[in-house]
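Service request form, structural biology core

Requester: graduate student, group of Dr. S.
Request type: structure prediction, single chain
Budget code: on file
Notes: please return the result as structure tokens.

Sequence provided:
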Amino acid sequence: MKTFVALGALVALCHSAFGLDEGAYTIGSASLQSNKILSVNEEDGQTLSFSPNNNDGSQAWLFTRVTFDNERDFLINSTFSGGYINCGEQRDSPCALGDEPQVFTAELAGDNSYELISQQSGYFLRADGEKLQIAEWDQSPDEQFVLTQVFYLPRLYGTSYQTARKDSSLDIPQKPPQFIYAEWNDYGYLMLRTPVSQIPGHMQVCPKQQDKLLSTTRVVARPCPDGGPYKLGLNKMTCGHDSYIRDLTPILQACFHKKIQFLIGSVGGDGSDKRAQEMFEIVQEIAAKEGFSFKIATISASFQRNLLKNRIVNQKVGPCGPAEVKLEGVEKLGYRTIFIGGIRDPNLIGQIANFLADLRAYPEKLFPELDRSPQCQLLFHFYGRNGTMGPIEPTPVAGHDLGILGEFVAPSQELSYTIANNARASTLHMPYKNQIATTGNFASPLSPHETAAGPIFRFNVYHLVDLEASEEISLFPISTRLIANGPLPKMPIRSACLI
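Core staff response, request fulfilled:
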């Protein structure tokens, strides 16, 4: 069973009903088209305008609370340049980015819609065409902003924060740490969600940033759920050993030389204790080769079945409450076999739905258990005809070529293979209206034509579980270890690698 724990905390808390969470957001105007959001001019790093959403860092804004317990007052700065939104004090003055911070109060105006009021002047932020300014309150949609949380996080700030700290009249919190988001995908590559040029420690890529590296910087490799339940079911790591060595080496170089924190969530893919140990050994291997020394903390995330049963009996598994963890568990459905091929005859493409319905009926007679349960089923996936979006495809126009992926699930690999073989042969030879030839309906690019794809799993636990007092500590113990290949880095344990 897999336990997801929030990065940076062991307890996932519900959002306040009215307060805005700290984090990165896009800022849209209720009076403009929904695809237009506040952006920074990438050339001067200061000019602000509303432009089409193109999903890059110049359109994400970090909202940081002025005090920890205040859910309404924020500093707003760009994750692209680090500059703060500042609109001065004069009514109708334009807003731009600068080093001086300005505190804004976020007042809930509707669903994800907020009014943003400058504490310095008392004026409201307003969308003036495609520009941003401050103005008197007029209850118009121009002064309502749609905030959508995103996963962009800030790049290096330069000196803007140090400049802001000089103003003792502002109660500004300690500088929020830099994060670099990354994930290992199912193809064995560490995908950086922050551009490589913004990564501290990448001196060969961004030499001009050397003097701006901060010890509060952290690198975060977060879990990617795209692979589905098979990682839990097969108890396998997401990538091969060499992929982890390749991608972790430059990150650990930055960790050691620049004292950067590195945190891996759901390590290895499923987040089990076994994966944490395997990842520790990989870090140990890299450290030995490079001569690095680290202080490392590992968090155990095993969740006992009896404890889960007790929570279910006591109705402590359900919607979001005061303190919870998310659990994932899987069950094996059976075994999968697939085949793939293409159809070119326009006569057959035009009647493919009826053809496959007749084709399905034939193996169902031979295998009565077929399509009676999720453990034994036949599925067809089309490519060239709504293959990606299926029934919600807005432009369902068939092409001249149709790719078909047949998927067959059965309680055993042998039965799955037998059904797939029968269905593929039927696809190749079954007659249809206006058929030109009695064979060759289906072109197979592979030989053997059927491929055994191994066991198949589905999630049977995907729940939030209430925690008792102090269980956020007792259920997820933290162990610290040292890797010594020379002098240890002079930094507290929280600044070392965390797995």
